[in-house]
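From the shared-data thread, chain only:
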Amino acid sequence: MKKTALAALCIFLLLSLSTCTSSAPAAQDDASSGTQQVSGSPFFTGDGGRGSSIAILAPKATGLPENQDYIPALVQGEFVSNFSGFSAISVLDRQRLDDQYTELLSGYYSEDAREGWDLGHLAPTDYIMGGNITRTGTGYALQVSITKSADKMTAASYSGTFTFAELDNLSGVRRASLDLLQKLGVTPTDQARIELTGAAPENHASAQIATARGITARTEVAALSYFIQAATLDSSLTEAANRSLVISANISSGNVGMDTRNDIAWRREWLARLTETEDFFRSMIIDADPPYSLFYSSGIERGLSIIKRKPPVSAFP
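Structure, as tokens:
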């Protein structure tokens, strides 16, 4: 009886194992189907451009007012984010790219040095993206070109316009990204099309703007403030967090920028002047009732002060 039950149990287990094995999806044979398997990414099918690389430069600005000097960095940052997130193309880290260009433009290399012949060629990427953004009466015009590093032939290009609102929510740059990715052979999924034809999440757009403002900030203190804000708004934006760590280390070590040091020195000089003025008036009126009071604003601004004097009163009519 025990042997019969044991045999029945073995048969049941074998049948169950066979059923589970036959119900599992069989792997597709790429060679027989003639097509590539789906990558598993929710944003593209096929290889998504895997194996290729690109360096994305900030577009040159035309007609932008001074208070919008961060816009090229904003457009660059969103392109980097879209190419990194919606394809398998390897995107050169923007901080590394900035460091390379800073070194090449520092004046260390002579004009006829090989390193200065072609800045873009030095980036170890298959493609280079560059372009121009121009302010118009109703928004911005964007022209982008992607060239092959090997032969300088154009691989893809885009030309379009978007409104001020479409810059704020990054939908204009996202539409351009979708167009360029497809021209490079990336096949987007329906989910990718929906995301790249609409506005970016509010926290992501705000974080990108803060990062761009940090990159173009005049002082390291201001840049650090923007980068911390960006990292708080969107924790997935690792560039902002990395840049804030670098600046924090510089400030902690005393290696702050020249503009910041000048700013601090200027404030200290004003404080010293005000203290001297207070001491001077206090010494004049000591042990007596002060005939007047000294007031000054704490909101000091850089500029030229003009003191209006009353004309002297003549002793003669």
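Strands lie at 44-45, 53-56, 60-62, 90-91, 127-135, 139-148, 154-163, 187-188.
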